[in-house]
């Protein structure tokens, strides 16, 4: 059975452009504010509004949290009379920050008619973690070392931290300047226990709790499962690191 041209266009869109975003669709002719007559052309402002809504929905941001600039529309052509609707798709693996490309499939009376390319520069503003003073290599980050400040994250490293709790307890890989925005490349986890450390092994089951002395057989970070040895029985097994002196065995 042969497929209609509109069906083929829609299938091609799914193959080449990926999933759609319902939040970014415009399906109401009145919203488009275009006269229902032959030769109608969609104004750039309509594409811009749809583009902005798509980006805001994808980032879970309000309109006042982004700035759209250098917006361009390619492939916009006159359309036949009828009810116009748009469906937006991502162009490749977009991060929706910086230069962002989208594809708009334009339909008339629910029949796909043309593909329009939309692109623009998206500046996104969000709170990021910054240093309150210079940090030395090897320093462990505390709450006093950092503060939150609203920044244009489109101009920053994509790995910047946005939550203070994400960095507290991490170690500086190198020296960091005052007021620098922290990112994942600057910091690393600090192991709570090292190989050979003496720890308390806790085993709980219901209301029963048993503690025995033990020794770690490898280094471990918080919530890691590492091999430990019972100091009394000399048996080894895996336990979860709770702090620098305690591990817990799961039952």
Task: Write up this protein.
The chain has 251 residues and is mainly β. It folds into 3 domains: 120 residues, Thiol Ester Dehydrase, Chain A, CATH 3.10.129; 64 residues, Type Iii Antifreeze Protein Isoform Hplc 12; 52 residues, SH3 type barrels (Roll), CATH 2.30.30. 13% of the residues lie in helices and 37% in strands. The chain contains 3 helices and 12 strands, in the order H-H-H-E-E-E-E-E-E-E-E-E-E-E-E. The strands form 3 sheets. Strands 1, 2, 3, 4 and 5 form a 5-stranded antiparallel sheet that branches. Strands 8-9-10-11-12 form a 5-stranded mixed beta barrel. It has a two-stranded antiparallel ribbon with strand order 6-7. Strand 8 and strand 9 form a beta hairpin. The radius of gyration is 28 Å and the shape is elongated.
The gist of it:
This protein is mainly beta and 251 residues long. It has helices at residues 5-17, 29-32, 44-59; strands at residues 66-74, 84-90, 98-108, 111-131, 146-152, 171-172, 187-188, 198-205, 208-216, 225-230, 236-243, 246-249.
What secondary-structure arrangement, pairings included, does this model have?
Elements: H1 5-17, H2 29-32, H3 44-59, E1 66-74, E2 84-90, E3 98-108, E4 111-131, E5 146-152, E6 171-172, E7 187-188, E8 198-205, E9 208-216, E10 225-230, E11 236-243, E12 246-249
Parallel strand pairs: 8-12
Antiparallel strand pairs: 1-4, 2-3, 3-4, 4-5, 6-7, 8-9, 9-10, 10-11, 11-12
């Amino acid at each position: 059975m042969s497929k209609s041209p509109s069906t083929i266009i829609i299938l091609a869109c799914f193959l080449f452009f990926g999933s759609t975003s319902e939040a970014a669709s415009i399906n109401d002719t009145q919203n488009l504010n275009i006269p229902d007559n032959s030769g109608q052309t969609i104004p750039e402002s309509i594409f811009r509004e749809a583009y902005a809504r798509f980006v805001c929905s994808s980032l879970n941001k309000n309109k006042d949290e982004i700035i759209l600039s250098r917006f361009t529309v390619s492939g916009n052509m006159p359309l036949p009379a009828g009810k116009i609707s748009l469906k937006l798709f991502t162009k490749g693996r977009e991060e929706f920050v910086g230069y962002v490309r989208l594809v708009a499939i334009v339909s008339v009376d629910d029949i796909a008619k043309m593909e329009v390319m939309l692109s623009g520069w998206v500046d996104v503003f969000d709170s990021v973690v910054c240093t309150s003073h210079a940090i030395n290599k090897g320093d462990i980050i505390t709450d006093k070392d950092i503060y939150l400040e609203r920044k244009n994250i489109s101009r920053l490293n994509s790995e910047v931290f946005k939550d203070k709790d994400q960095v507290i307890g991490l170690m500086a890989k190198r020296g960091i300047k005052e007021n620098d925005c922290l990112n994942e490349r600057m910091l690393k986890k600090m192991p709570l226990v090292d190989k050979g450390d003496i720890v308390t092994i806790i085993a709980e089951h219901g209301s029963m709790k048993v503690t025995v002395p033990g020794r770690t057989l490898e280094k471990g970070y918080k919530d890691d499962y590492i091999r430990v040895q019972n100091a009394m029985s000399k048996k080894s097994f895996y336990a979860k690191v709770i702090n620098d002196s305690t591990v817990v065995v799961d039952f």
